[in-house]
Design a protein that fits this description.
105 residues, mainly alpha, 2 helices
Length: 105
């Protein structure tokens, strides 16, 4: 590309970014600040792609599936860590009780 064409492409990309970033920026705190996440009671709906030729929709569906799997794996790992913390805390309490029973302070 010539220097003029590169400049035009760069200008077009910057303009496109400006147009797509039209949401107002707020400096106020989020309405969700300090609110804990809720857990789902029901499973998520299946991912359906209407048009198998729509590559963007297929990519989006694949990404959604990958994100769901990643979140599930993260939750499972978090649960494992919480169980390990509980086990270690119980073991600590047991040893503390044994030490106190022997008269250690």
């Amino acid at each position: 590309l010539a220097a003029d064409e590169e400049a035009e492409v760069g200008d077009a990309l910057r303009e496109r970014r400006r147009r797509s970033d039209s949401s107002p920026r707020s400096k106020a705190a989020s309405a969700a600040a300090g609110v804990s996440a809720r857990k789902r009671n029901q499973p998520l709906p299946p991912i359906v792609v209407e048009d198998p030729n729509d590559t963007v929709a297929i990519k989006r569906a694949r990404n959604t599936l990958a994100a769901r799997k990643s979140r599930q794996k993260k939750m499972e790992r978090f649960d494992e860590l919480e169980a390990e913390i509980a086990r270690i805390a119980a073991e600590r309490d047991m040893w503390k009780a044994k030490a106190l029973a022997r008269g250690a302070n």
